[in-house]
């Protein structure tokens, strides 16, 4: 899935909202996004700085990789159990 905004841009938009110079509705219209997207970003990135967001992204990718490894190991273990049962 291609993202339209980078994490740095998202954090910048959230910072604009924190300043409170304009309403959230006007801010969303300015950046051409929905309010639902804005609030989803605020839940995910609220209070993060750019380095924190990068670290979060790295941790999420590492977590996904580790989950795949565990799933593969479970398949191997199930296969070995099946072989032992047949003997």
Main sheet summary: none
List how many beta strands DSSP finds.
Answer: 0
Q: Assign a percent range to the helix content.
A: over 70%
Q: Helices and strands: which structural class? A: mainly alpha
Task: Please provide the ordered H/E string of secondary-structure elements.
Answer: HHHH
- The rough form would be described as elongated
Number of helices: 4
How far apart the termini lie comes to: 46 Å
Please give the radius of gyration in angstroms. Answer: 21 Å
| Tally of separate domains | 2
Q: Mean pLDDT, nearest integer? A: 91
**Unreliable sequence segments:** none
Bin the strand percentage: under 5%
Polypeptide structure, described:
GO terms for molecular function: DNA binding; transposase activity. This is Transposase IS1404. Belongs to the transposase 8 family. InterPro entries: Homeodomain-like_sf, Transposase_8, Transposase_8_domain. The protein has 87 residues and is an all-alpha fold. Helix 1 (7-19) crosses helix 3 (35-45). It has 4 helices and no strands. The protein starts with 6 loop residues before the first helix and ends with a helix. It is elongated and about 75 Å long. It is 79% helix and 0% strand. The protein folds into 2 domains: 1-48; 49-87.
């Amino acid at each position: 899935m291609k993202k339209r905004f980078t994490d740095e841009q998202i954090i910048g938009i959230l910072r604009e909202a924190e300043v409170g110079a304009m309403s959230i509705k006007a801010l969303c219209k300015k950046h051409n996004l929905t309010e639902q997207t804005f609030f989803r970003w605020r839940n995910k990135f609220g209070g993060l700085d750019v380095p924190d967001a990068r670290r979060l992204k790295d941790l999420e990718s590492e977590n996904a990789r580790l989950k795949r490894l565990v799933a593969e190991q479970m398949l191997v273990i199930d296969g070995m159990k099946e072989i032992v049962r047949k003997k």
